[in-house]
Design brief:
This protein is 32% helix and 26% strand. It has 213 residues and is an alpha/beta fold. Strands 3-2-1-4-5-6-7-9-8 form a nine-stranded mixed sheet, with helices on one face. It is globular and about 45 Å long. It starts with a strand and ends with a strand.
Length: 213
């Protein structure tokens, strides 16, 4: 089996990246991480990636001033040099220009901490609590030019608990993200969809995984 060469873009601690790297240690995994890149030189995830033996590089977006595309062209060049075929955004906090999205169309996925189309953008946990939702979740989706608008690949849902704060909800949802992202990315790398729905209990939380409804 030839494994799809994976590039991962991060901006911070990289816990979702780590979930992808861990899943890829299984030889049956259809993707192989070859490069992790960050727009922030101090992103904790860079050292975590090196700990897995994966090349990790930072390209500081600030050195490009307001020229977003110039930054992205530098990232794109590194990805191509490393032979990357599929790109996963994992807590990458820069909105990508249509140029980059187009360059990687169909080969660019993201994880977002809400049940899209609910709550695109920021502060998703806060907005979920303020709305009084009984459930919260995350979505892995194809990236298109509209922010958080691309077709969903898979979603995972947890119950909101009485007394949940933004912090507790975010921390509990993160465990669902770590479960969902490797499954969805494997489906994309294999060229098919997320076929089965599933329920997994992690630390007392039932995580419901499903294909987009
Ligand atoms: C995750 O919750 C991810 O869903 C979110 O940032 C966090 C990154 O954590 N992404 C977005 O909000 C993208 N718009 P991590 O660095 O530990 O993976």
């Amino acid at each position: 089996m030839s494994r799809k060469q994976l590039g991962i873009l991060i901006s911070g601690r990289g816990s979702n990246m780590e979930a992808l790297l861990k899943a890829a240690q299984d030889t049956g995994c259809p993707y192989e991480p070859v490069l992790v890149m960050s727009n922030k030189p101090d992103a904790g995830g860079l050292d975590r990636a090196r700990g897995f033996g994966v090349a990790a590089k930072a390209i500081d977006h600030r050195t490009f001033g307001k020229d977003r595309e110039a930054f992205e062209r530098a990232v794109d060049a590194e990805l191509k040099l490393a032979g990357v075929e599929l790109v996963a955004l994992a807590g990458f906090m820069r909105v990508l220009t249509p140029w980059f999205v187009n360059e990687w169309a169909g080969r660019l996925v993201n994880i977002h901490p809400s049940l899209l189309p609910k709550y695109p953008g920021v502060d998703t946990h806060k907005r979920c609590l303020e709305a009084g939702d009984v459930a919260h979740g995350c979505t892995v989706h194809q990236v298109t030019a509209g922010v958080d608008e691309g077709p969903a690949i898979g979603q995972a849902e947890i119950d909101v608990r009485p007394g949940d704060t933004e912090e507790t909800l975010a921390a509990r949802l993160l465990k669902a993200e770590h479960l969902l992202y490797p499954r969805c990315l494997a489906a994309v790398a294999r060229g098919d969809g997320v076929r089965v729905s599933d329920e997994v209990v992690v630390d007392g939380d039932t995580i419901r995984i499903f294909a987009p409804r």
